[in-house]
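Homework help board

Subject: predicted structure for assignment chain

Our instructor gave us this sequence and asked us to write out the predicted structure in token form, then describe one feature. I got the tokens but I'm not sure how to describe them. Can anyone check?
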Amino acid sequence: MRIQQLRELLDFVAECHLDMAQLYHRLNDQADSTRTKMLLDYFEQHQKGVARHLEDYIDAAPKRVLESWYKDFVFEDFKTHCQNTMLPASMTEDDVLELHLELDNLLIGLLEKTANSSSSAEVKSALEDLVRVQKIHQQRLVHSTMRMEDI
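My token output:
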């Protein structure tokens, strides 16, 4: 049985966003299309920003919330998943967006699962707010991506 604190989970999610940024940087080096490269650069910067926001959240969150304990949480090896992800040099903006949504939804799902298993109403509410913010970030990114296609 493995027990984790909420702080560790949030640190893990922030690291996962940095892993996504590294993936987008690597794919940028391999992409043929200038437009795809621009999108990958945008996604890389966005993921770094999301990681910073999570770190700021951790710094500002109440200690009692961050020290909540969870049993039997198994984290997927997200870093290895990002390192093993490949797209062809001919990748399109749609391929990149699809990949991003897949990865981002894994992280949002992990936060939702944690919120649903929280016994404390305060912790559950904090995580639900965090999930809501993550979904808003995702929607804005998709809208920004669609606007880039109009350029």
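Reply (TA_rk): Your tokens look well-formed. For the description, you could write something like this. DSSP finds six helices and two strands in the chain. That's the kind of observation they're looking for.
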